[in-house]
Amino acid sequence: MTKTPHESDVAFIQALAELLNKNDLAELSVKREYAENDSLNVKVSKYGAPAPAPVYHPAPIAAPAAAAPASAPAAAAATAPAAGGDPASHPGAVTSPMVGTAYLSPEPGSDPFVTIGTQVKEGQTVLIIEAMKTMNHIPAPRAGTVKRVLVEDGTPVEFGAPLLIIE
């Protein structure tokens, strides 16, 4: 800040604020030199504190039913909410061990690891969670049948979020 007040500083700061709004800028920083040891540093910002990062809470959904019409009643039964309502409390829930992006297939356009009705073995990969550019294979914690798929391909997941129901 300056050692001596300058009357033009207030007008200068107001002009910077107008420039910020007129050009749809978020922030503007300027240093104005008056003399060797006399300057004015101004930082004008549209937003006080940085906005908090968004938190994603994916809603549980079923995998799309692209099978024959005969499997429609089975798919409808699989998408019905479990008794108690919360899929995370289901004894067969497979939960996310990390925050990341869930992928249902090994690569875009390929068949998913599992679908509703798939028989899985303990340790078999059921989906992938990408975290920090690393693909983490998520194994089935037990053998059984996939009853529900609770995430869509490419959706963000939180730690502990239910991913699948295996019974």
TrEMBL record:
Gene3D superfamilies: 2.40.50.100. InterPro entries: AcCoA_biotinCC, Biotin_BS, Biotin_Carboxyl_Carrier/Decarb, Biotin_lipoyl, Single_hybrid_motif. Keywords: Biotin, Fatty acid biosynthesis, Fatty acid metabolism, Ligase, Lipid biosynthesis, Lipid metabolism. PROSITE patterns: BIOTIN, BIOTINYL_LIPOYL. It comes from the Bacteria. The keyword Ligase applies. Residues 91-167 form the Lipoyl-binding domain. GO terms for molecular function: acetyl-CoA carboxylase activity. It comes from Albidovulum sediminicola. Pathway: Lipid metabolism; fatty acid biosynthesis. Transmembrane segments: none annotated. This protein is a component of the acetyl coenzyme A carboxylase complex; first, biotin carboxylase catalyzes the carboxylation of the carrier protein and then the transcarboxylase transfers the carboxyl group to form malonyl-CoA. This is Biotin carboxyl carrier protein of acetyl-CoA carboxylase.
